[in-house]
Design brief:
Length: 233
């Protein structure tokens, strides 16, 4: 059985515990809920967008290239088409964590992590992309991909995609209107390990109140699902 903690946002390193050590049981989501979670999150995002559709400007696409000569930094700052992007690393291992840039893309490295990829072996890694504007995530291209690699995506700290297969083309195209400022690409399974090579986004202009409403809808949907799950159990 595999558990995901919604508070620390990653599969808990202590997978056999019934709760995240830092939180109570309410933050624990069982694996059998993953399909429900995905549908609820997407439905919430879509519902929000229905409300905000008139506010969206014609999207201007921008592609960020995360590849480069090998180097390790705590933060990488990139810029494309007037959008700033800050890339940082996160690990469930609490030790200092950085980002490694390679010709295959960016990964996450920390003191006890012997893989510079975004990997789920031992501590779970996540690569955080923080944009200066609200953007629509259009597509992502991965490096060092094999057929065991899946990724999990958080948008503004909400779980949106859980253990999604990375296609053999290595480029994943997201459903339309996936909006946010922060996108976290995580590896949860032991055999998940990959780099993030490029991301394609489109700049959008969304009123803050509408965006808050959308995120609220996602949260409410998740809580409702958890409640109904409990009632069934
Ligand atoms: Ca790593
Ligand atoms: Ca896998
Ligand atoms: Ca791999």
């Amino acid at each position: 059985m595999h558990f995901i903690c919604a508070r620390c946002r990653l599969g808990c390193a202590q997978e056999l515990l019934l709760s995240c050590p830092s939180e109570n049981n309410d933050w624990v989501i069982e694996e059998r809920m993953k399909d429900v979670m995905f549908k609820v999150a997407i439905a919430g995002v879509s519902a929000a967008l229905g409300l905000t559709a008139v506010a969206l400007d014609a999207a201007q696409a921008a592609t960020f290239d995360l590849t480069g000569a090998k180097s390790i930094k705590s933060t990488f700052d990139l810029r494309s088409d007037e959008i700033d992007l800050t890339v940082t690393g996160f690990s469930t291992n609490p030790l200092p964590t950085g980002v490694k840039r390679t010709p295959s893309g960016m990964g996450v490295i920390s003191v006890l992590d012997n893989s510079s990829k975004i990997d789920g072996k031992g501590a779970k890694d996540a690569l955080n992309l923080m944009f200066s504007h609200t953007v629509e995530l259009v597509s992502a291209t991965f490096g060092a991909v094999d057929n065991k690699d899946e990724f999990t995506l958080f948008v503004d700290d909400f779980l949106v995609l859980f253990d999604e297969d990375i296609p053999s083309s290595k480029t994943y195209t997201f459903l339309p209107d996936l909006l946010g400022e922060k996108f976290s690409f995580a590896a949860l399974e032991q055999n998940d390990n990959f780099y993030l090579k490029t991301v394609e986004v489109a700049k959008v202009d969304v009123p803050e109140s509408a965006l808050m409403l959308g995120l609220g809808a996602v949260a409410v949907g998740i809580v409702a699902q958890k409640k109904s799950q409990k009632e069934v159990a």
